[in-house]
Amino acid sequence: MEEMKDLVLNYVIKEYLEDGDEEITYDTPLISSGYVDSFSMVSLLVFLENKFKIKIPADKATPEAFDSVNSIVALVKQYLK
Amino acid sequence: MSNIGSYEERLQNFSWSLAEKELEYSAGDIINIGWYCSDRICLKGHGAKVALYHEDFCGNEKKYTFNDIRLAGNTIGTFLRNLGVKEEDRVCLFMDRIPELYLSFLGVLKIGAVVQPLFSAFGDESLHVRLENAGTRAIITQRKHVSKVRKILDRLPSLEYIIIVDHNKAKPLEKNEVAFSLEESEPVEAMEICPTKAESHSLLHYTSGTTGQPKGVKHVHYSIISQYLTSKWVLDLRDDDIYWCTADPGWVTGTSYGIIGPWSLGVTQCVLDSGFSAQAWYKFIEKYRVSMWYSAPTAIRSLMKAGDDIIKNYDLSCLRHLASVGEPLNSEAVIWSQKVFGKPFLDTFWQTETGSIMITNFPGMKVKPGSMGKAFPGIEAVVLDMKTFVPLKEPGKMGLIAIRPGWPAMMRMYWNNEVKYKEKFVNGWYLTGDRASIDNEGYFWFVGRDDDVINTGGHLVSPFEVESALLEHPAVGESAVVAKPDEVNMEVVKAFVTLKPGFNPDKDLELEIMNFIRKKLSPLAMPQEIEYMEKLPKTRSGKIMRRVLHAKEWGEEIGDISTLEND
Fold first, then answer.
1. Architecture in CATH for domain A2-79
2. Running DSSP on this structure, what letter comes out for residue B402?
3. Which class for B457: exposed (0-12), middle (13-18), buried (19 or more C-beta within 10 A)?
4. 3-state secondary structure string, B162-175?
5. Given CA atoms B357, B359, B361, B362 in this order, what sign does their dihedral have?
6. Does residue B268 contact residue B243 with C-beta atoms inside 8 Å?
7. Which of B194, B223, B226, B399 has its CB 3.0 to 4.6 Å from that of B356, i.e. a possible disulfide?
8. Band of the pLDDT at B276, cuts 50, 70, 90?
9. What is this structure's pTM?
């Protein structure tokens, strides 16, 4: 679980944060903070599906479900076999 | 009673001088948007009135009166002037929706320099082409975005000043960088406002076309005449309103109606610097008692998707008037807003080039859901025959939306691109690039774009720009980019690519290419889907036939493919 969280957190830091000074945690809002916008959410979804070999239905990939590393991991867990 | 009163009566003997009189402007006078939006309101005795309520994504609140924004504009303007920024210099505003963005806008204009607003999500390449084209001399930005500027600085010889508004003293400034903190600066009570005239350059907004690089749209200080009157008659802004324009000032709606319109009228506005979520938006409306809400179809459709039940958790009775802009507003959204808010979102149509609202649904006028409405008084709008460019008289016939030039906010030129500018005019008409029909009651009905430009979430994306960037990825051999239908954003970017030998067409590469474009151009330009092709459809002369791919995406007839290359 922690490993999965770190994987997602590190990916978000690497791909979406522009300033290396910014610190985010598992609970930092990603969508409402503007770190990840609605267009970029699609690439984050592709990352999750590729990495965890899952398929997340479009209606489940909501801004609320993607708003923190914790909520993302909770979503991913629902679709892990 | 709405501000406009009777639309029919307003059409009679309309003159822009009406707005000039209300703004106490006469031909030949000094006219400076920065002054009109702050100093003038204070001189009218409203200095203590709130101009801006600001809230960031953490819920931190700030409040600025009209006197505060006057002082902030003076302080920023004086800082820039002391730095060496001069009249007509282009100053790029590259910030999130933080207060400094709105206040710098005033400061730059007050010293007669030109505001070049750019969307802060732009990647380094999108930023580079726009700063290079404009010959930008200074950029005002935040620490979180400065790395993009550093990457391209060596290719921008005109860029002398990089002003960082939230500099962290722990890290050293780099080449051409200057720190500026509004909060730590001594407020400047008085300054000499640049005596700009009606035709003095005020803004340089960038917009995308099908071909070529983005075009810089030049606007002048006289544009305020249109923006003031349309804000009053279409947005129906009143003294006691709390106004919320959800657009980012990196785009024209965010400046024409997110700064100039409300502040020239002395109206209080609020800004939420946060990503979209239905709960956050409703909470914001309830908290600030928003009465006039100007938003976009993509946001409205996202709210619809979030469901009606959530609305019951908030008191939204404060909403008095709603309007929408950016792309055509579908009839379902109009009907939905009537059902859940008790009033319809009124669609407004205009463009970066027009600077102000051209065709619109007016308060008090019969709303035909799905229609663009009627021309603003003083605006002669028609649809032209696609071949002869003669106005069509027959109701319901589709043609090109065209407008007779001459309104105050009309663009004055495309920066360094006279050829493209001239192409926008035929037989004395300005061609909008959109197609529509007009019904027997004079209502316009949007049909579609007349070019390949992609309108995604109300923002125009050039397929050419994305295709060019795709070719810079080491795996991509050829590329073609088209619009793909999307329930929320109306259209999204879809790319078709062929790969160079040695690369596998798999999902990991798709993600890599998506992120490559997102960082290089912007999240808007990032293909939401990438389809690998063995080869792209081309004419015998080798030109990629985008329309074949477009037709495939939209389930349309492919049309004439006699020029299609054979295997």
1. Orthogonal Bundle (1.10)
2. E
3. buried
4. EEECCCCCCCCCCC
5. positive
6. yes
7. B226
8. confident
9. 0.92
Give the type of residue at B269: Q
Enumerate the residues of chain A whose CB falls inside 8 A of the CB of residue B58: 33
The answer, for B60 touching chain A at a CB cutoff of 8 Å, is no
**B189 at the A interface (CB within 8 A)?**
no
Q: How many CB pairs below 8 A link A and B?
A: 75
- Parse chain B into domains and list their residue ranges: 7-436, 454-554
CB contact under 8 A, B275 and A64: no
CA dist B243 and B467 (Å) reads 39
CATH topology for B454-554 is: GMP Synthetase; Chain A, domain 3 (3.30.300)
User: Which of B169, B160, B170, B112 has the alpha carbon at shortest distance from B140?
Assistant: B160
| Tens-digit pLDDT profile for residues B361-394 | 999 999 999 999 999 999 999 999 999 999 999 9
In three-state secondary structure terms, B87 is coil
Residue of A nearest to B57 (CA): A33
List, in sequence order, every residue forming a beta bridge with B494; answer none if it has no partner. Answer: B482, B529
A24, with CB counted inside 10 A (0-12, 13-18, 19+), is middle
Tell me B441's DSSP state. Answer: T
Residue B267, Ramachandran bin (φ over 0: left; ψ between -120 and 50: alpha; else beta): beta
Q: How confident is the model over B45-102, as pLDDT tens digits?
A: 999 999 999 999 889 999 999 999 999 999 999 999 999 999 999 999 999 999 999 9
Q: Which two tokens stand for residue A34?
A: 């503007």
> Complex ipTM, two decimals?
0.93
